[in-house]
Design a protein that fits this description.
By secondary structure, the protein is an all-alpha fold. The chain is built from 14 helices and no strands.
């Protein structure tokens, strides 16, 4: 009995091509769907999108992929695509999916503050005390257009600078510290941000945590950043019993390879914001629950 053309050579039959395209579209559409779900939080962090915006971003990206799949199927009805183009589309889709996952993984372990120069990094980190990175990025969007050099911060009155950074909280003290730091940069460092921690901590308003952030982001890691998340998770994981940030840092330096000093706090911060939450840790979802001495499962 002769085999129907649709079954013997599906790629040569119009209906077969339609079925192949729909199947391929569903495959890479769902792959991209899940990739988008993974990438959306990273994109939100990178561009300071709120949690509500993250949900909308996820739905928008996923909706785009679904629409693309449906459009591909409709175009096939007009006999546009053949089997080779289907294969090419699948390869492209796979590359995009892998790229989305790679971007998500890398974006989760980078600083959320936005800056384009060493001075901007220093100011943004100083402003981030006792507030969120989202708030700082919202303020610095306009701030860094107005103030581009250390001299610019010194050319305005203290009151004017206070109003420019007011949404970040404790703005009076921060304004005094920023102007004091800029004065020292101009007077003793030629307007450049130093690299050594011993020099950075001389700047008004710059403690060891801020100095570690600035140095690490410039590729000159000299310590481990200890913020609220790093302190909490280090204690929960049994990496330290100390409460003082300097002592916690010393304990971490003993167990964390020096090559990972810059990356390690980003990983703990990410984990602390999404899994090991302060008031309600999601121990059942934690990949470390079989190792963590504080695990509730």
């Amino acid at each position: 009995m002769e085999t129907p053309a649709l079954l013997s050579s599906p790629s040569r039959h119009p209906a077969g091509r339609m079925l192949l395209l729909i199947a391929a579209g569903q495959f890479f559409g769902m792959t991209l769907w899940f990739s988008a779900t993974a990438a959306a939080p990273a994109l939100a962090t990178e561009f300071s999108i709120t949690s509500g915006g993250t949900a909308w971003l996820t739905m928008a990206v996923q909706g785009g992929f679904v629409a693309g799949t449906l459009i591909s199927a409709i175009l096939n009805l007009a006999d546009v695509f053949n089997a080779r183009r289907l294969f090419a589309m699948g390869c492209i889709a796979g590359a995009v999916a892998n790229g989305a996952i790679a971007f998500a993984e890398s974006a989760w372990v980078i600083i959320a503050l936005r800056f384009a120069s060493d001075v901007e990094l220093l100011v943004a980190t100083m402003l981030s005390a006792q507030t969120t990175d989202v708030t700082v990025n919202r303020v610095t969007t306009a701030l860094f257009q107005k103030y581009r050099r250390p001299e610019d911060y010194l050319a305005v009155s203290l009151d004017e600078l206070e109003q420019d950074i007011r949404p970040t909280g404790t703005f009076r003290q921060k304004a005094r510290n920023v102007q004091g730091a800029m004065r020292l940069l101009v007077d003793e460092y030629g307007g450049h941000v130093p690299l050594a921690l011993s020099d950075l901590v001389r700047l008004p308003g710059v403690g060891r945590k801020t100095a570690n952030v600035v140095a690490a982001e410039r590729g000159a890691t000299q310590g481990i950043v200890v913020d609220t998340h790093v302190r909490r998770l280090s204690q929960r994981l049994g990496l330290t019993r100390q409460d003082d940030p300097a002592r916690i840092e010393r304990d971490l330096q003993r167990v964390v390879p020096r090559a990972d000093w810059a990356r390690f706090p980003h990983l703990l911060i990410w984990h602390g914001r999404r899994v090991c939450i302060a008031r309600a840790p999601r121990c059942a979802d934690c990949v470390l629950n079989d190792l963590c001495p504080s695990s509730r499962v």
